[in-house]
Amino acid sequence: MGRVFFNTRKNIHKIDGAYTMLASDSGKTFMLSATGGTVAITLLPAADLVEGWFCKFVVLEDTPSNAITIGAGSAIIDGVQKDAGGDAANSTAGTAVSNIVVGTSSTQGDVIDLFCDGSTYYFECLSGINNAVTTS
Questions:
Q1: Coil, strand or helix: which one is 128?
Q2: What residues contact residue 100 under an 8 Å CB cut-off, 6+ apart?
Q3: Which of 22, 28, 77, 126 could disulfide-pair with 121, CB 3.0 to 4.6 Å?
Q4: Burial class of 90 by CB neighbour count within 10 A (0 to 12, 13 to 18, 19+)
Q5: How would DSSP label each residue in 54-94?
Q6: What confidence tens digit (pLDDT) does each residue in 54-110 have?
């Protein structure tokens, strides 16, 4: 029997400017940089949410030049964050928010996993710097 090879590579997409997410972006890993200025990433609007849609954001630039905002346009994001301070101070604690903000003190490798149940976005965030990723 011959060898079977599987395409197991991650679908990587670099973001270094404004970007509007698409339904087809589900499953992608987005590498975040802000060398060109403040970055706004627009999530699918509430009316277009799809159950099972997910992606991952990874900070590519060590201490980004500018802030990176991942925004839903309405308070439909819930999540938990753990950072280098060992606390979850920037978690949503049951109150949905509109934005996840990757600040200029974040570090390369900080990660946000984001997924949707069809009506709400949920995230998990790990950061190597205390309070580098916040919500609003």
A1: coil
A2: 69, 70, 71, 77, 79, 112, 114, 123, 125, 133, 134, 135
A3: 77
A4: buried
A5: EEEEEE-SSS-SS-EEEE-SSS-EEEEEE-TTS--TTS-TT
A6: 999 999 998 899 999 999 999 999 999 888 877 777 889 889 999 999 999 999 999
Query: Do residues 135 and 92 touch, judged by C-beta distance below 8 A?
Result: yes
Q: Residues 98, 136: contact at Cβ < 8 Å?
A: yes
The pTM (predicted TM-score) of the whole model is: 0.91
Residue type, 49: L
How many Å apart are CA 20 and CA 39, to the nearest integer? 11
Cα 3 to Cα 26: distance, rounded to the nearest angstrom:
30
